[in-house]
Input
Amino acid sequence: MPAAAAPWLLLAVFSGTLISLQARITGELAAGLGGDGFAAAVISFGSGFVVLTLGLLVLRKPRRGVGLVLADVRARRLRWWQALGGFGGAAFLLAQGLTVGALGVALFTVAIVAGQVTGGLLFDRMGLGPAGPQRPTRRRVVGAVLVLAAVGLSMADKLGGGFPYLMLLLPLVAGVCVSWQQAVNGHVKNAAGSAYAGTFFNFVAGTGALSVIFLVHAVAVGLPSRLPTEPYVYLGGLVGISFITIAVAAVQKLGVLLLGLCTITGQLVGSLALDLLLPHGDTQVTAATVAGVALALAAVAVAALSGGRTGRVVASSGVTRAAASERVDGPGAV
Output
């Protein structure tokens, strides 16, 4: 891995800490809504969509990037399903709202990590991301296995009876969806020449999907009877904008698997920080948790030393829009 990728590794790890923060916020929002995870998901994702839309009203370059994406979809230079990465984010946020309250951040993270690692290996091998096919080299596979071991180690003392383990299936599937989201969002960013525009399309798709699901649920069981009064529980959308923007910009530099490993490490670090600084319920920080975080950091280092990338860029948008990136954002802009 070139030395120039080091800042992207750090950014990806930081984005993982934001994922843990969002999981805590969304879980508390759902609890404040009377346990309505559907409403919590649509509020969190929808607030991010509103913020990004307002930004487009005043930012000319991202608006031009949105136009470029639409033009590429119409011309079939960008496949229509590559603009639907927000569906993966919607699955992730819905899983947060529905399961974090019952499982806790620890068990939720275990299932998400398993799905992310599986999806990262699969989608890198398929070449779904803008970096093209990534061979599952020995070090990448070892890094992935070590991350799974790190999660198991750090969370093992938190597993116990009384938990609805079948509920783990939802975050497991959501973790795979997150890897798919990271892969296809990179193509949208290339087409737009703008990480902002790529993030906007992510929130358009996710908000649309969650709105339909929420309306169906509301017709069946009704609307929440109350709204929480704590302002911080409504910040999930802003947190989501931050880590999705980082992922959109970083996936071409790191590949889907390595990006996933970094964000997983960030999730572990974030969970540790939350447990230390903002303890919730009966959460305790143990030596196993600290050891698991250290092992995960070592795993990312192993995967990062796996050598250069091979293969081709799957979608032509990354090549055809190289000049567009210069037009929209200027050299070196995000």
The chain has twelve helices and no strands. The two ends are 21 Å apart (CA to CA). Residues 132 and 312 are 5 Å apart (CA to CA).
